[in-house]
Amino acid sequence: MKKKKGPLILIGVLVLLLILYFALSTWNKKQDSKEEETVKVTDLKTSEITGVKYDLGTGEMNFEKDGDTWYYTADKDFPLRQSYPKTVADAMGQLSADRELEDADALEEYGLDHPTYTVTLTDEDGTVTTIKVGNATGNDYYATVDDTEKVYTIPATSLDDIQTELDQIAQLDTYPSIGSGNLKKEVITQNGETTTYDSENEDQAEDVAAVAGGLGAVKLSEAADYSVDDADLAGYGLDATSRITVEVAYTSDDEDQTMTLYIGGENGSGDRYVMMNDSRIVYLISDEICNNILNQ
């Protein structure tokens, strides 16, 4: 009597499929593990970094930490956004590479003898770590640290957080949301004379709507001076004898609030110099918006 081969063949196919399944599963896990592996370029305790300096080819930017406060070294009165140097310290102090080159050539072959970018980190013990970034290679850059002569390829995105413009790192003043719905009163003082627009005065409804439109259009986004000295206020028309003072009463979340704007001279390009409350930042706001605020 012949034995039936069908079930044996099916069992054999099943065993083969199981072997293939486990082999593929093991291979995938190994690949995932490889993808998760990173090459450390720097491994610093970022909370202990007290100095961040870099040059991206447009001039050196330098920041230092005193206690818990970061300062822009060139101007300690500059309103530095405190999260900024910490972000750079975190990114550069824990920098990872796509790979480390084996048997790397001389540094000049990668543009690292005269680096395109240089980032220097200093910790609280005075230890200095210098990251040099050279030529681009695809979506990466060649990089090295200190004098190790090890060459890495780091993602170009590693440098995304590093800024070179002051307006990108400044902590500008927060301007309130003001409109005809929450403006209570505006008092303008100019050349010793005072003009008042009161929302409770029905005869001034049109004027109140006009000045509210001006106040609501203000955007504090462009600065002419980030930390003006008293001696320089006259140059902006913002000294006490020249400026126009605009005192604003409004409500926010059902709470009474006040704000003071100081409007100075024109810059010759369609803007006027403006300051807010006791801030030392001089902003640029268009003539048109200022004229609406003043109901001119």
UniProtKB/TrEMBL annotation:
Q: Report the residue ranges that make up the DUF4340 domain in this protein.
A: 70-188, 206-288
Spell out the protein name for this chain: DUF4340 domain-containing protein
Cross-referenced Pfam families: DUF4340
Biological source species? [Ruminococcus] torques
Q: Which domain of life is it from?
A: Bacteria
Q: Which InterPro entries match?
A: DUF4340
